[in-house]
Amino acid sequence: MLKVHGYGVPLSSLILKKYCGGAYRLAVAALIAAGVIEEVMYPKGYAYSSYTGKSKLYRLTERYRGVKWVNEEYGDLMSGKLEAWQREENKITETRSPEMLPLRECLKQFTFDADAAARYVDTLQDDTPTRMRKKNARADAVHRIRAIQEGASILPFTYRENCGRLFTTYTNTPKDLLTFLKARDGSQLMEVDVSNSQPYFAAACAAADGVVCPSLDATARGDFYKLLMCAARCPDERRYEFKREVLSLLYDAPERATWAARRGGSGVLSVIAADAFIGVFPELWRWVQAQKLPGRVGRELALRMQRAEGSLILRAVALSLLRDYPAAPIMTRHDSIICRADMADEVQRRIQEESLSMYGRACTAREKKPGQ
Q1: 67-71: long-range pairs with CB below 8 Å, 24+
Q2: Cα dihedral sign, 336-338-343-344
Q3: Whole-number pLDDT of residue 227
Q4: CB neighbours of 283 closer than 8 A, spacing ≥ 6?
Q5: 3 state SS for the chain
């Protein structure tokens, strides 16, 4: 969270955005460097930056207190309430979705080298706001995992029926920290994930609605972003930025591209991505825009895609693997599964076979080491 230096007064990012426009981030960096404002670390490792997004602590605190910021003096109180909330969520999962509980037992077969991860986080630079956010997020994740290992906190295990997703400690752990994840039996781990997963599930949902969708073939081959980047003449070194803009187009308001063009700056890339999307996959673009409802832009589409993802990764693959290999370490991370290296080929085969059976096109599943 941003505060006026020396006064502890929260600073609204909307004020800076209003007066700084496209130079907003540069202005924030300059004010932090000059000591006019400061970025605050919360107790127990939580961090929040008001100009990049809301942390989990912020969202959960808002849910309980109905406030827009968290005062440090309530840190211990809020931690206790969040713990109670997590216990309640875990209990709901145990009651309503008992079929997911074997996956919780599987988490006990993994361990995390928190000391090595903490040393790695200490080596990260924090000389810019972006690097500071990255370092704080990783310090927060290491703190949460360490607290669970030491018994100071419970293991989050929540299955949300509305989106069909399973949430655990490792679900949203930053990817680079997964290199410190180990199997208790000492076996090597591999991660198998779905390439172009979000466009693939969007195209699969469109096809289920009767839309003739050539984009399903492109996403199944793993060529979705490659084709869009070629159409947009976007260089490979900007792939991450381009992909982020394409994904935002799936969920944002239909007029976003026009708005982005007016605001300039990074919005230019958004317009280029939108033009490429419309030109290469017009049928998918029209279907995506038709799913967006006033006041709930992209939410129903996102939930439907998440349910498709959960049906494939959780129910069709992960739970079937546990039935066949009950002692194997298996962990899901939304669109990927972490398993023993000797099981990776089997996991990849099942993902492809089940996706072909469910959605008519076998998706591309790739193997990699966790954290890569």
Answers
A1: 68/10, 69/1, 69/10, 70/1, 70/42
A2: positive
A3: 93
A4: 206, 211, 212, 213, 214, 215
A5: CEEECCCCEECCHHHHHHHHHHHHHHHHHHHHHHCCEEECECHHHCECECCCECCHHHHHHHHHHCCCCCCHHHHHHHHHHHHHHHHHHHHHHHHHCHHHHHHHHHHCCEEECHHHHHHHHHHCCCCCHHHHHHHHHHHHHHHHHHHHHCCCCCCCEEEECCCCEEEECCCCCCHHHHHHEEECCCCCEEEEEECCHHHHHHHHHHHHCCCCCCHHHHHHHCCHHHHHHHHHCCCHHHHHHHHHHHHHHHHCCCCHHHHHHHHCCCHHHHHHHHHHHHHHCHHHHHHHHHCCECCECCHHHHHHHHHHHHHHHHHHHHHHHHHHCCCCCCEECCCEEEEEHHHHHHHHHHHHHHHHHHHCCCCCEEEECCCC
Q: Is 264 left (phi over 0), alpha (psi -120 to 50) or beta?
A: left
Does the model's pTM come out above 0.85? no
The Cα 319–Cα 330 span in angstroms is 9
Which residue type occupies 296? R
Q: What is the mean pLDDT of each run of 10 residues along the chain (372 residues)?
A: 47 62 69 62 38 44 43 51 78 89 91 93 84 84 87 84 88 91 92 94 92 89 92 88 84 56 51 85 89 70 90 94 91 93 95 94 93 83
Asked if residues 207 and 360 have their Cβ atoms less than 8 Å apart, the reply is: yes
Q: Is the dihedral of CA 89, 355, 319, 334 positive or negative?
A: negative
Strands 336-340 and 189-194: antiparallel
The reported pLDDT for the residue numbered 45 is: 36
Tokens of 346: 């089997």
Q: How far is CA 100 from the centre of its chain?
A: 21
Query: Which residues contact residue 6 at a Cβ distance below 8 angstroms, ignoring those fewer than 6 apart?
Result: none
Q: What's the token pair of residue 267?
A: 């919005």
